Amino acid sequence: MGFYLFSQVLVPRTDIGVVSGKRKRVKREEMSALQQQAQLLDISMEDAANSAIVVKAFKECEERELGAMRALRAHNRNKRDGDIPQEGATFCLCHKPPQPNMLTCSLCLDLFHSGCVPSSHRSKVKLSNEGRFLCPSCERSRRPRLETILSLLVTLQKLPVRYD
């Protein structure tokens, strides 16, 4: 799994179902927190300063993410009829036909060849007591529980701050 900013983890994804997620990247160090928030929520800089607009944009992004994930899951379910893949259907990151013993992503329901998935993802499947697998694309959707975030925020508030 790559590393993401805390805000990237918390904000709903906009790239669900996008095969090539290539975008022009701007160095994070060159962007202010407000610019990053505006970019992640796809709103203007002026709107990013207004908390009511940010909350509304977040809710809209959340709805779009859920809708896109439902559509992607339905598409991936339709690629196979039960356990039998449709003729000509492709799966995995490599977009090749299925083989026996493929991994099924718990979120997007697509099938993945074990050789195409990075070993860190395969080992997570073996270590997981639930046997769940998240593909590299869906790994970004894995968010911490709200209770965890709240406890971290409370701990952050208790940290002493030194002003120079």
Automatic annotation (TrEMBL):
Q: Domain of life, per the record?
A: Eukaryota
Matching InterPro entries, A to Z? Zinc_finger_PHD-type_CS (IPR019786), Znf_FYVE_PHD (IPR011011), Znf_PHD (IPR001965), Znf_RING/FYVE/PHD (IPR013083)
Please name the GO terms of the biological process aspect recorded for this protein, alphabetically. Answer: methylation
Q: Which GO terms describe its molecular function?
A: methyltransferase activity; zinc ion binding
Keyword flag Zinc: yes
Q: Where is the Zinc finger PHD-type domain?
A: 91-139
Q: Does the keyword Ribonucleoprotein apply?
A: no
Q: Name the keywords, alphabetized.
A: Metal-binding, Methyltransferase, Transferase, Zinc, Zinc-finger
Q: What is this protein called?
A: Lysine-specific demethylase 5A
Q: Say which species the protein is native to.
A: Portunus trituberculatus (Swimming crab)
Q: What is the lineage of its organism?
A: Eukaryota, Metazoa, Ecdysozoa, Arthropoda, Crustacea
